[in-house]
Amino acid sequence: MNYYKILKLNRLIKNDRIKILGIALLFLLRRRFYNVFLDPVLLCNYRCVMCYFSDHNYKPNKSTLPEELIEKVGKGFFNHALKLQIGCGAEPTLYKNNNLIIKQAKLHGVPHISFTTNGSLLDYDKILSMAEAGLNEIILSLHGTTKDVYEKMMPGGRFEKLHEVLNSIQRVKLLYPEFKLRINYTVNPDNIEDLRGIVSYLDDYKIDTLQVRPIRKLGNTAYSDFDIKRKQEAYSNVINAVHNKCVEKNVVSLLTRKLPDQKLSRNTLDIAKYTYCYVSPIYFGDRNFNPNELSYIRFLRKNGFLRRIMKDVFLTRNTKYDSSVNFGNYDVNV
């Protein structure tokens, strides 16, 4: 399954009601329709300046997903998951049982399994073991392509270690040609020009997918310049060059051409609320759901999931409202 072709199809279908109705159909047919974003721990070993972990007053929860709960999470969530992403708001390499999660996802037939990380605790053997367990894609976060910018944006990180990990991934890809590498780059007013350097990474490291995401405010952070809109001209010049290189190299790109305002907005009709499922040691898809009692899909059936969809499709006015989060604002080029 090519997950990015599904993302592209989602962007091509402009009518939100049709997309939500499609989710209802998949739900009725008992097909896969949601994406599970799983944080097995809620800690991070970096203090990236654009992340809430850089807030000196932030007190992270030290809970971890118990090993005995992994099988229940697998049975409860994975049978209807289109994608599993391990690592969402924290650093999953701080967890010791990631391979068990990957194997559970494979056991339940999840078509696309990815792993988002800063890479600092990875080496060749660990990457190889995840590929052997069934991992489809490793997503490496980097917010600078030169040593100075990378280490400024990602305190705790070492530029040399980043390249060691990138080289290890290339070695694993030789053994597992279907194993994919994605780079996530969050762009802000101070690292736009450094984004140009990603072109050389495309040449050197056989990157399969590149995501460039404009900064957005996610809690209190050490970085405070969220007015990226003023950099539209400089950003456009850089992103056009990056896009052209992605096309030349057959790299899947998730890019946005138009920078957002500081105040983001969302539509009332929002497919993400039906397809986004977050799981952590303290939260399981819904604050009222207990994975020890029944499967997530049965919970949705018992709690009016289909009724809410039908209300959105036929009754809800599609208006915009202010939001700190904006899903799906990328042009997907496959």
Task: State the end-to-end CA separation.
Answer: 13 Å
Gross geometry: globular
Into which percent range does the helicity of residues fall?
Answer: 25-40%
Number of strands: 12
Radius of gyration: 20 Å
How many H/I helices? Answer: 12
How would you sum up this structure, described in words?
By secondary structure, the protein is of the alpha/beta class. It is built from 12 helices and 12 strands. α2 runs antiparallel to α12 (305-314), α3 (67-77) packs parallel to α4 (98-107) and α8 packs parallel to α9. The chain is globular.
Task: Tell me the layout of helices and strands.
Layout: H1 3-12, H2 16-28, E1 34-38, H3 67-77, E2 81-86, H4 98-107, E3 112-117, H5 124-133, E4 137-141, H6 147-153, H7 159-175, E5 180-187, H8 198-205, E6 209-214, H9 232-249, E7 252-255, E8 264-267, H10 272-275, E9 276-280, E10 283-284, H11 296-302, H12 305-314, E11 320-323, E12 331-333
Parallel strand pairs: 1-2, 1-9, 2-3, 3-4, 4-5, 5-6, 6-7
Antiparallel strand pairs: 7-12, 8-11, 9-10
Keyphrases for this structure?
334 residues; globular; alpha/beta; ten-stranded mixed β-sheet; two-stranded antiparallel ribbon
Question: Could you give a quick summary of the protein structure above?
Answer:
With 334 residues, this protein is α/β, with parallel strands linked by helices. It has helices at residues 3-12, 16-28, 67-77, 98-107, 124-133, 147-153, 159-175, 198-205, 232-249, 272-275, 296-302, 305-314; strands at 34-38, 81-86, 112-117, 137-141, 180-187, 209-214, 252-255, 264-267, 276-280, 283-284, 320-323, 331-333. The chain has a 10-stranded mixed β-sheet, with helices on both faces. A two-stranded antiparallel sheet has the order 8-11.
